[in-house]
Each structure stands twice: as C-alpha cells, then as structure tokens.
Design a protein that fits this description.
A hairpin with a 6-residue loop joins strand 2 and strand 3. By secondary structure, the protein is of the alpha/beta class. The protein contains five helices and 20 strands. It has a single domain, classed as Leucine-rich repeat, LRR (right-handed beta-alpha superhelix), CATH 3.80.10. A twelve-stranded mixed beta sheet has the order 2-3-5-6-8-10-11-13-15-16-18-20, with no helix packed on it. A two-stranded antiparallel sheet has the order 1-4. A two-stranded parallel sheet has the order 7-9. It starts with a helix and ends with a strand. It is about 20% helix and about 15% strand. The chain binds 2-acetamido-2-deoxy-beta-D-glucopyranose (8 copies). The site of one 2-acetamido-2-deoxy-beta-D-glucopyranose has 5 residues, from loops. The site of one 2-acetamido-2-deoxy-beta-D-glucopyranose (NAG) has 4 residues, from loops.
C-alpha cells in the first residue's frame, strides 16, 4: 500500500519535474493522465484485497484458541510413523500478520471469513474448553488430526459448526463417548474419528449415536472410525447407512456378530475396511454383480466357513485382503473372475485343495499371498 500511495502522492511533483525537463512537449499532459489511471487502478486493487483480510475478531479468536495448548513434539509422534512431517504450525501465528496467511488457516476469498483450519500434526497438547473461541469461527473444514487432547472428550460445542463438511480427528487422542451432537451436523461429508489408543484412552461409540449418524448424516461420503470401540453396537444397526457413502472404515472396532450384507451393495461404496474385528462375521453368499467395491479388507475377522463362489461377483475389486479369516476348504474357481485384482492375500486360513487354474486370468495381480 505504502509504495503505491507514495507514487500517487509524488506524481504531481514528478509531473512538475517532467514539465520543467520537457516543457515544450505537449505529450506530458497525456502522460499524466495515463499515470493517474494507473494510480486509480492500483488503489482499486488494494481496496479489493483489503476486503480479504482477516477481521480482528477472527484473528483474536484464533490467538485465544492457541492459548489452550502447550506445544509438544511428543503429541504428534504418530505423524512421523505415517510419514507426515509435524511441526508447531501455531507457533508462527503473529497478530500483526493477516491471519488468512497463517499456516493452517483458510479464508473465504470473498468474505475473508475463516472457513478452514488444518492443525493436524501441530504438536497440540491440551484440551478444548466448551467456551473456546474456536467456536466463534464458522469452519467448513476442521482438521485436528494427530495431536494429543487426552483426556478430553470431543466437545459437544462442535455442534455450533453447522456448516462443517469435513471433520478430521484421526489420532487426536480424544476419549470417552462420542456425543450425540456429532450427528447434528447435517452437512458433514467426511467424518474421521479413528484412533488406536488402548482402553481407557480412545473413544466409544454407542448405538444411539450410530442411529443418529445414520438418520441425520445423509451426505456422508467418508466414515472412518478405525479403533473406536463399537463393541456395544450390533452390526445390524449399520444396515441403513447412507447410499452416498464411498468409503467405510471400521477396522479394530470390536464389532461382533453378522455384518449386514447390503453394505456390499451401497451404490457408491468403493472402499470397505473391516479388518481386526475378530468376532465379526461377513457373509458373501448373496453378493451380486451390483457391488462397486474396489478395496475390501476383511483380514483378522471370523468366517469359519467355506469361501463362497459368489466372491467372484465383486468384479471391480483390485485389493482383496482375507488374511486370517478362518476360511476353510478350497479357493473357488470364480476368484478368476476378479480380473482387476492387483492384491490378493489369502494367507493364514485353513484352505485346502489346489490353487485354482483360473488365477492365471488375473493379469493385474502383483501380490498374491497364500499360507
Ligand atoms: C522433542 O523434544 C525434545 C526436547 O525438547 C528433544 O529432546 C527431542 O529430540 C525432540 N524429538 C523429536 C522427534 O524432535
Ligand atoms: C472460558 O472460561 C474460563 C473459566 O470459566 C475463563 O477463564 C476464560 O476466560 C473463558 N474463555 C473465553 C474465551 O471466554
Ligand atoms: C486426516 O488428516 C490426516 C493428516 O493431515 C490425513 O493424513 C488424513 O488423510 C485425513 N483423513 C481424512 C479422512 O481426510
Ligand atoms: C438430527 O439432527 C437434529 C438437529 O440437527 C436433532 O434435533 C435430531 O435429534 C437428530 N436426530 C437424531 C436421531 O439424532
Ligand atoms: C432400516 O430402514 C428400514 C426402512 O426404513 C426399516 O424398516 C428398518 O427397521 C431399518 N433398520 C434398522 C436396523 O434401523
Ligand atoms: C450365509 O448366508 C447363507 C444364505 O443366506 C446361509 O445359508 C449361511 O448359513 C450364512 N452363513 C453364515 C455364517 O451365517
Ligand atoms: C465366473 O467364474 C465361473 C467359474 O470360473 C464361470 O463359470 C462364470 O461364467 C464366471 N462368470 C462371469 C460373469 O465371468
Ligand atoms: C483346519 O482343518 C483341519 C482339517 O480339515 C482341521 O483338523 C483343523 O481343526 C482346522 N483348523 C482350524 C483352525 O480350523
């Protein structure tokens, strides 16, 4: 701003100098007009970009939020395991810099409102109080993954983020019950609460909350609950999950009983992960060609029966992991119908008989593990 203002202010004096220097040239008047036009344009541009600036309320809300936490590298060690760099993003938040340019902050280009906050892997250690200034923002995307909020619960005030579409609390060590308020965010497209903390750290999700999620969150495309304790929930309750779902990840949730078969036929579902639910039974006997699944992981679950021929109907599969599922008997011929398969793991089952010759149809197969 200052530079342009300087130019505008000093233009008359430049004009004077020019007039003296090239007095006899009438062109100077025309030149002046051009300069003024340029000047006007610069001022206009700046007033436009000023509208993008973060308001004082927002920047102080963010700075107050920052004060809830101490920054500790041990809060984000899991990031290093999964290969995401971790560093204290908030450390460099400074009052005199436009908050829309702070690391992790996204603003709406027109209104200047903070609409996204990505503080994943940011060393946060502490808890979010219910009157936190965080809830003054109108976030659409919130990512607090890979921090340490133990022993706090997911605050019920999250319900104030009515425009929230993406909530990512993966590996953020929240504990206790997932509150019903999570199901009062009707615009959620992606919900990730996965964690792998041993009890009593970690989250529990009760039947009532799952019912709320199923009834209210009808726009969900991704539901990731790996490691969340869902043992109180009968898997049958998952039957009416929304048809918009593309990815469902329920690894190590302690699910027990029969997994509803209709989930395989959700029209948009391409990824289903059920691994590590030791007492969960899946029945493939009714799967037909309507399934869109490309990725299926049922390793470390319970079947205790023969692998049905119908497995060959999951014709879009490229990844099939059936390690240690207690399958018995022969591998069905129809496995050769899964022509897109690039990964097949059948190890650690009680399979018998020959490897079917149809496996040679699987031209994409890169990795095959058996016994
Ligand atoms: C974390 O911080 C401690 C103390 O500040 C330091 O000794 C340690 O090397 C750091 N660890 C990593 C992974 O940066
Ligand atoms: C929240 O409440 C605590 C204690 O009740 C108070 O000290 C703090 O200033 C409040 N914070 C905000 C942002 O209102
Ligand atoms: C959640 O955030 C982490 C860290 O940024 C990222 O790796 C992961 O893909 C995110 N999950 C979802 C569902 O967006
Ligand atoms: C669905 O959300 C509304 C508010 O958005 C809430 O009043 C209602 O109780 C929710 N339904 C369930 C089953 O949780
Ligand atoms: C699923 O929806 C159908 C039809 O609305 C209903 O009859 C059934 O009880 C629901 N199942 C569950 C487990 O909620
Ligand atoms: C799977 O479903 C078929 C047909 O519905 C049934 O005959 C079979 O017993 C079921 N298997 C298990 C383990 O429930
Ligand atoms: C699937 O495989 C079986 C056995 O190899 C075969 O008889 C059947 O025609 C195949 N179905 C399709 C749709 O390719
Ligand atoms: C595996 O199969 C053999 C023979 O069919 C049987 O004796 C054994 O008990 C089975 N093991 C398991 C773990 O099911």
């Amino acid at each position: 701003m200052t530079v342009d203002r300087y130019w505008c202010l000093c233009l008359p004096s430049i004009y004077n100098h020019l007039s003296v220097l090239v007095n006899s040239y009438r062109k100077v008047g025309w030149l002046m007009w051009c300069y003024q036009l340029l000047c006007l344009q610069l001022v206009l541009l700046h007033s436009l970009s000023f509208a993008n600036l973060c308001s004082h309320e927002q920047s102080s809300a963010l700075l107050q939020f920052k004060q809830h936490f101490s920054l500790s590298n041990s809060s984000s060690t899991t990031c290093d395991f999964v290969g995401i760099p971790s560093y204290p993003k908030m450390k460099y938040w400074k009052e005199d810099i436009d908050c829309c340019s702070w690391d992790g902050v996204t603003c709406d280009r027109v209104t200047g409102q903070v609409i996204g906050l990505d503080l994943s892997c940011s060393w946060l250690y502490g808890s979010i109080p219910s009157n936190s200034s965080l809830f003054l923002l109108s976030c659409q995307k919130l990512n607090l993954a890979f921090n340490d909020f133990f022993p706090s619960q997911i605050p019920s005030d999250f319900v104030r983020f009515q425009s929230l579409t993406h909530l990512n609390l993966t590996f953020s060590i929240f504990s206790g019950q997932v509150l019903i308020q999570i199901s009062h965010l009707p615009n959620l497209i992606s919900l990730a609460l996965g964690d792998l903390q041993p009890w009593p750290r970690g989250l529990t999700l009760e039947t009532l909350v799952m019912k709320g999620i199923i009834q209210n969150l009808t726009k969900l495309e991704e539901l990731i609950l790996d490691g969340v304790n869902m043992s109180p929930l009968a898997p049958g309750h998952l039957t009416n999950l929304t048809s918009s779902l593309m990815l469902l990840s329920l690894g190590n949730c302690g699910l027990q009983g029969s997994f509803p078969e209709n989930i395989f036929h959700l029209p948009n579902l391409h990824t289903l992960k059920l691994q590590g639910n030791q007492y969960l039974k899946c029945n493939f006997s009714k799967v037909d060609g309507s399934s869109s699944l490309r990725y299926l992981d049922v390793s470390y679950t319970s079947f205790s029966e023969k692998l049905p021929n119908t497995i060959g109907n999951l014709k879009h599969l490229s990844h099939l992991d059936m390690e240690k599922c207690n399958f018995i008997g022969p591998v069905p011929m129809s496995i050769g119908n899964l022509t897109q398969l690039s990964y097949l793991d059948l190890s650690d089952n009680n399979l018998s008989g020959h490897i079917p010759s149809s496996l040679s149809n699987l031209e994409q197969l890169i990795r095959f593990v058996k016994q």
